[in-house]
Write a structure and sequence with these properties.
Layout (H helix, E strand, L loop, with lengths): L2 E5 L2 E3 L5 E8 L8 E6 L6 E6 L6 E3 L7 E6 L4 E6 L8 E7 L3 E2 L3 E5 L2
Parallel strand pairs: 2-11
Antiparallel strand pairs: 1-3, 3-8, 4-5, 4-9, 5-6, 7-8, 9-10, 9-11
């Protein structure tokens, strides 16, 4: 059974940091491109960052470049998203994703003072 379970969300002040984690099971993780998406009410889900199976290549949404870092551990079958210098516009539900179409349940990130 495929499982993707996010953790690490919460409330943080602008300029603060959070680290999201996604634990996975049930599919060939080490061969899978992994990603983080986010969604706010009334908007399309958007790709925040993705990472290649080897971890050597990654790509980011323009607005998070230089602030967010995606990483993976192929031994533990986990990915992470380190988010620094958070802004109110980063507030969203963040989802872990693996091709072909596996999604986690999401974790809420709220950036507010």
């Amino acid at each position: 059974q495929v499982q993707l379970v996010e953790s690490g969300g919460g409330l943080v002040q602008p300029g603060g940091s959070l680290r999201l984690s996604c634990a996975t099971a049930g599919f060939a993780f080490k061969w899978s491109t992994m990603a983080w998406y986010r969604q706010t009410p009334g908007k399309e889900r958007e790709l925040v960052a993705n990472i290649s199976p080897s971890g050597l290549a990654s790509d980011y949404l323009e607005s998070v470049k230089g602030r967010f870092t995606i990483s993976r551990d192929n031994t533990r079958k986990t990915i992470a998203l380190q988010m620094n210098n958070l802004r109110p516009e980063d507030t969203a539900v963040y989802y872990c994703y693996s091709r072909p179409s596996y999604w986690g349940q999401g974790t809420q990130v709220t950036v507010a003072s």
